[in-house]
Amino acid sequence: MKALFTAILCTILFLAACGKSDAGTQAPVQSRIVTPPSVGDMLNTIDQFKLTVVELGSVNCRPCKMMTPVLERLSSDYAGTVQVVFFDVWQNQAPAEHYRIQSIPVQIILDPTGHELYRHVGYIPYDNLKGIIEQLLAKGAKK
Fold it and tell me: What is the pLDDT of residues 101-122, one digit of tens each?
């Protein structure tokens, strides 16, 4: 009985964390984050940047929402060098299948040929993600 209660409680907490909150109450902000219709469309333009950060998440997932300011800052700080792409996998499951993800959010860093250089599951603070970007750029990700 205790195990059943724990399982139900965990499910409720998970659903609450990923549920809608105040998403529609703020004015829309001009975003630098690209939302292509498909992975193929993204890969057609990927060679224009030294790196591409692909965020696979959902607009209704709290950890994913926490990533939005991190990704916005990253796209601003590295404009023209690093492209930031977002796929809402609850609306479009094809990118999740393509990159074989099982939980969100996931950040995948690609080189200009689409080769995966780094993958992280969950929220990652700006300074950590910036450090990884800097290491990859220093290793010579070519434009």
Answer: 999 999 999 999 999 999 999 9
Q: How many domains would you assign to the chain? A: 1
Nearest to 118 by CA among 134, 96, 97: 134
39: domain CATH number? 3.40.30.10
State the DSSP H helix or E strand holding residue 110, giving kind and residue range, or none if neither. Answer: strand 106-110
pTM for this model (two decimals): 0.76
What proportion of the chain, given as a percentage, has pLDDT over 70? 76
The Cα–Cα gap between 123 and 143 comes to 28
Structure tokens at 138: 């220093």
Sheet architecture: strand order including 82-88 = 82-88, 51-57, 106-110, 116-121
CA torsion angle 89 94 98 103 (round to 10): 30
Q: What range does the domain containing 44 cover? A: 33-138
What residues contact 121, with CB distance under 8 A and at least 6 apart? 101, 103, 105, 106
Q: Quick one: pLDDT at residue 11? A: 40
Instruction: Confirm if 89 and 57 have CB atoms less than 8 A apart.
Output: yes
